[in-house]
Structure formats: structure tokens, C-alpha cells
Amino acid sequence: MSAAADAPGRRLAPGAWRNLLRDYPLIPLTGLLLILVLAVEIGQPGTVRPSWIGVVARATIPLAILAGCQTLTMLTGGIDLSVGYVASMAGFVTATLVGPLGGVALAILAALLVAAVAGLISGVGVAVFRVHPLIMTLGMGLVVLGFSNVWQLQMVQTGSGVPSELRDVGVGLFADVVPYSLVVFVPLAALILVGLRRSGYGRLLFAIGDNPVAARLSGARSWQVLIVLYVISAVLAGLAGLLYSGLGNTASVTLVQSQLLPSVAAAVIGGTSILGGRGTFTGTILGALILTVLTALLTILGLPEPWRQIVFGSIIVAVAAAYTRVTAEA
Amino acid sequence: MSVTTGIPGALRVRPRETLVALARRNGWTLGLLAFFAALLLFTKLIQPNYGALGIQNLAVSVVPLAMAAVAQAIIVIAGGIDLSIASMMALTSVVSAELMKGQSEAFGVAVVIGVILLGLVLGAINGTLVVLTRVPDIVVTLATFFVWSGFALLVRPSPGGGAATWLKDLVIGSVGSDLIPKAAVVMLIVVGVVWIPISRSRLGLSIYAIGSRQLAAFRSGVAVGRTKVISYVLGGLFAALGGLSLTASTGIGTPVPEPTYTLVSIAAVVLGGVSLAGGVGGVLGPIIAVLVLQLIRTDMTFLRINSNMALVAQGFILIGVLMVGSWIQIRRSRT
């Protein structure tokens, strides 16, 4: 560190930081995460234990999946603002259908199917009618909320309960440390990571986001890619919603809506550009971890929910500005 | 007759206008107005006792949304988009309701001026962040949406507060004939006083110019960054007016913004003939569009459609409007 204190080092340091943030964003992000964990430990000594890490991981997993929706759609220059209502709907539909359908698996399947239909409509709007994804998904979110409300009124008589299987997966910690939800998350994350890096479909997402015209001229049928993308995003949101309803042991039509901003924030902090063509799911997972630890820190500091919104909003702008600055000079 | 600035006047040359030319240029707005009239007639048909009271209620419920639509329209014309309008309205509404609670009528005037200044500051922060950080408008205003609503919750965790009587009187009742609601007149005067001088000035021209083609505007000597900030400041102003009208019409302030406001403002802008790409349209179209959207909602209650189904229908109508609007735009750009 002392080398950085002398004159030439000081002149080089900002540039070096800039390159580090641009080329290996995961290193400064990991640093930030460690600083936050340290702050938690200082704020309330003795907090950071293996069981605490397990709890943080358990809270991070659904957020990371939800943020994955944002990462995937942002790669093509889009965004999915319907994830909050789609996820809530999935949890709610599953909870209400377990009885009538007589099985958790069937109920989950039905819920994910409904989510996929919502994603399909969003996808058609974005890809065929070229409505701005932001507006399309915002509107789709309202439609889903409306349908959920209608469904809720229909289901008042039958009642609902979060199935115990979901509760186990959402809440359970193996040996008090390892969350059961990793069973869902690890294959899913592996699929997204490998899919983005190795599969043709993943490369198409980057290509369309980076330069839509070039992608079209190279023969990419972007409308098909986009429709599939929004279906994937909605199904991922549905899965996240199932985990959330298990985690909270509740199912309501607005349960996950409060996680919409954090999901965008996690993707942006993780280095995904909303303009498309740049981003990694690893960064997004780190972003989700950072936000979860930050929430824990704010709780320890005794800051209520309004302050959490203010801090999250400010962080999004600050981090997005930092990324824009370093990438603009490349 | 070119406008006195150095900018080529071709964009908005104003020759001696005949009525026909005026009608042709505002064809979309006029069509919308006709549709609104037809919708009013339809309302009268399905609910024969719909009359002066119904129109007054419509006007009162429309004012906050119309202000939101005007705010959005100005920002979109300048090539931006503002997702934080709903929470700016919530924040200005709770601040005004909290400060006016149990205070004198005269103090209410000071509060209104203060809240309008607050709106200008919020808009300036949005605009400055967009211009300085170069982060896309959507990300910045999505983030500030949550910042403003966080502050709104800090001011008042739950709905409440009060409003000065003169403020409430501004939106209640009618002027002259029973069929001319006071709320609509006040709104049109406020919007007209602010927007008409600006739209005819160099500033207005610059706002259209940067939305139309930023690079060309820059090369013609328009201060792009400053104009963009000003467009957000105007957006903040109208959001504050919207917040004040919320306080005026309900008598209290609500810290949690109505989730549909942002979407309705965007849909009204598109339906009102403003291109989301920027540089095209005005503020009158979006106001009429808000009237149409609100009246459709009223009609759905008259038709005894379940209020949740109405939300679904509203969502589909908004999406449909956006799809068709965007489809027309694609078609137009191809030819």
C-alpha cells in the first residue's frame, strides 16, 4: 500500500482502479462485500457466524434468481419490471392450487405455466410490436396483479396454505448452515452461467444487445430470441416467487413486489448494463449478496424501510454512474 | 419567418395559419377529442342520469393524472422518460398535507409555494443526475422513484394531514355553467400559463430540438445538457402541481404512490400523440388521453364490471394502446 502513496503511484492509481473495475469487476465487488460483512461484525460483534452466512445465503438465493431475470433481459437492452407481480402470483397460485389439484408438483407446474403465458405476452409485445420492454413489462405486471386479485376473490372459500415442501426448501438449513434452496439454485445458476457463455442462444442475447442491426444482418431472428427470453424470465421469476413464499411462509398477490428494485439493483451493481451487451450472472449473484448483507447492516443500524429504499436507490445511481464512467473511456 | 434564434426555423415555422392547416397539424388531438365526445355520449346512454355531477367528479379525479401526463409529456418530448413522477407526486402531496394540517389559510399559500419549489428541486436532481452521470434516464429515475417514495414514507408513514380550504375549493364546484367544472378550468389555466410561453420561446424550441435529434441540436448551438435538465425541472414542477392537486382533491396526503400513475402517464403520452422517441407532440393530447382513459374506467363501473377485472382490462387497454402506437410508428418509419 505504501507504494501507492508516492507521486507516480498516485497518478497511476485511478487509472489502475478504472481498469480493474472495467476488466475484472468481480474483484472490487468482492472487496465491497467483505467490507460490508466487516461492518456488520463491527456494528454487532459476534454476528458473523456460519449460521449467519447460511441465513444470508438463504435470503440471497431468491433475490439472485429474480435479479437473473433482469440480467438476462438487460443483456438485450431490455428490463423486466413484471417480475415482482409474476413471482407473487406464482407463489399465490401454487398455495391455492395444492388442494384442488391434489399435489404440489402439479400446482407448481400450473403456476409456472401461468407465468410463462404472462412472459409470452410480454415477449410478443416487445419482440413483434416493439413496445419498449420497460413499459410492456410494467403493463403486464398490472395485468398479472389484476388477475391475481380476481383469482384471490375466487379462492377465498377454498382457502390457501403454503405447501410444507415449499416451506422446507425455502427455509431449511442443512446442519444449520447450508440452505436447502441451493438444490434449486445450483443447477439453475449453472444452467444460466454455462448457457450464457457456451450456448448459441446465450451468444445471441449478447449479440442482440450489443448491436441489434448487426445481429439481424448476421441472420439472428431476434424476435424469436426475445419471445423465448421473456418466457424464460417469467418462469425464473415464478421459481423465485415459490422460494419467497416458502421463505416467508405466506402467499399474497403482492408478496415479492418489494423485491423489484433490489432485483434491478443487484443486476446493475453486478455490472450488467441496461443498454445491453454487457453483464455476467456471477456479478449479479455478487450484487444480490451485497444487497442482502447491506440490508442486514441497515437493520443492525436500526434504519427502517424508508431508509432502505433511499439507500438502495442512491447506490443504484452511484454504481451505474461508476460503470458508465469506466466503460465510456474504453 | 424564422424564429429569432439561430436554429433553422423549418422545424416549427408558423406561416399564417388557416383553420384547415391548424386542424391538419393537430389531427390526432382533434380525433382524440372526438373520441372523448363519443365516449361521453356512450356514458350518457348507459347511465342516463350521468350529468353535471359526473363531469365534475371526472374532472377532479383527472387533474392529478393530467398533471402527471403533462410532466411526462415534456420530458418525453425532450427525449427522456421519468419513472419517478408518481413518487414525486406522493412526496409533494404528503409534504403539503403535513405542513398545512391545522395551519392558517395564509400559511397554506406559503406551503404551496414551498412545495412547488420542492418539485423544481426534485426535477433538477433527476435531470442533473441524468446529464452528469450519463446513466440512462430509465435507471436514474427508477432509482429516484424509490428514493422519493422513501422520503415520502419518512414524512408520513400513513395517509393523513390536511389541506387549506381555499386549496380544496380550487378543484370543487363549477364555473359559470354546471357543465364546466372548476377543476378543469384551473388545470387548463395553470398548464397554459406555464407551458404556452415556454413552448413558443427559444427554450421550447430547444426542448423539441434535443428530443428530435440531439446531435443536430448540439451542432446548432443548443445547450443540450442544460435544456435536458430544464425539461426535468418542468416535469418536477408539474409533478408537484399533481401532488398538490392530490392533496386538494382528497384533503390528505398519501405516502405510497398509486402504482398505475407512472404507467398511465406514459400511456397517456403515447395515446396523446407524443412519440416516445422524442421531439414530437404537445401537452394537450396527453391531457385529453387521460380524460379518455379515466372515462373508460368510469364506464366500466357503470357496466358493473368487477373492479379487479377493470384493473385487468385497464392494463390490457394500456398495453394495447402502446402496442398499436408503436406499431404505427414502425409502419411510419418504414415508408
Could you characterize the architecture of this molecule?
The complex is a heterodimer of chains A (about 325) and B (about 325). With about 325 residues, chain A is mainly α. Chain A is about 75% helix and about 0% strand. Chain A contains 14 helices and two strands, in the order αααααααββααααααα. A two-stranded antiparallel ribbon of chain A has the order 1-2. Chain A is globular. The relative contact order of chain A is 0.18. The model of chain A is unreliable at about 1-10 (pLDDT under 50). Helices cover about 75% and strands about 0% of the residues of chain B. Chain B has 14 helices and no strands. Chain B has helices at about 20-25, 25-45, 50-75, 85-100, 105-135, 135-155, 165-170, 180-200, 200-210, 215-220, 225-250, 260-270, 285-300, 305-335. The longest helix of chain B is centred in the middle third of the chain and has 29 residues, at about 105-135. The chains are: A mainly alpha (about 325), B mainly alpha (about 325). The interface of A and B includes residues 139 and 274 of A.
Radius of gyration of chain B: 20 Å
Strand/helix succession of chain B: HHHHHHHHHHHHHH
| Strand segment tally of chain A | 2
Give me the side-by-side strand order of the main sheet of chain A: 1-2
Chain-averaged pLDDT of chain A: 86
Topology pattern of chain A, helix = H, strand = E: HHHHHHHEEHHHHHHH
Instruction: Supply the CATH architecture of chain A.
Output: Orthogonal Bundle
How many E strands of chain B?
0
CATH topology term of chain A: ABC transporter involved in vitamin B12 uptake, BtuC
Q: Please report the first level of CATH classification, the CATH class of chain A.
A: Mainly Alpha
Percent of residues in helices of chain A comes to over 70%
Count of DSSP H/I helices of chain A: 14
Architecture (CATH level 2) name of chain B: Orthogonal Bundle
Indicate the percent of residues in helices of chain B.
over 70%
Question: What does the main sheet of chain A amount to?
Answer: 2 strands, antiparallel
- Overall pLDDT confidence of chain B: 86
> Low-confidence parts of chain A, pLDDT < 50 over ≥5 residues?
1-12
Radius of gyration of chain A: 21 Å
